[in-house]
Input
Amino acid sequence: MHDLSDINTIKSLLGRHGFTFSKSMGQNFLIDPTVCPRMAESCGIDKDSAVIEIGTGVGVLTKELSLRAAKVAGVELDTRLLPVLAETLTDCRNVEIINEDVLKTDLHKLIAEKFEGRKTYVCANLPYYITSPVIMYLLENRLPIEAITVMVQKEAADRLCAPVGSRDSGAITVAVNYYATAQRLFDVPRTAFLPSPNVDSAVLRLDLRKEPPVDVPSEEFFFKVVRAAFSMRRKTAQNGLSNGLSVSKQTAAQALEAAGLSPTVRAESLTLEELAELARQLHNIIGG
Output
């Protein structure tokens, strides 16, 4: 048995396998013994469910998930970690490590082939540099998953969990609220990692909605409008829409007025319902 919360044990383990941390992969491994059990307990799994872990590290969270779920699929990009995981997870018979880039993995196929119709969850300590791409990949692909529990940079958690229409909201806040309900679970200090990053983290859970909370002309067009509106944060939504959609400021102003909004409104102050109405008006004026 390995005590994977002990720095010396981890350093010895990694040293035996000639492993060095990769800055380009954003590798910071959890060593706080309280965090991974808490994440595993919070993510919603039980003995009849399955879970996808993204980025296994040395297997600290993987072990905790294996104790609580029927099946764990760990998607790990770094081939150098495979012999490490073979050692640390030797007793975890319900774990399968998949050496792939999650953003290039057919997760629909993985779930269908590996999980035998079980309720499926995602739980991960995400590298900071791929937080938004991974979350959007999971949400946009309409995967048959119940919830996504992830550890992210604290600043990213602020944005992901912010109410739409608040100062901290952005395009990804809108997307998260469209596809899921977000809940911030707990904060994690930088000292919980090896090596220690320069920022603190937070764990959040996204429970997937069965249906979107607003009607939109098309999801593709709606998110095109959202990205445009937020593209110039220090300027008005009118400027962002004009620039991002390649329409005149007069057209953007016309859509805002038709949606009952001020031409000087900023995107971060708009609610999900107001953004949906704005997308409908723009769709009527300029088409998809």
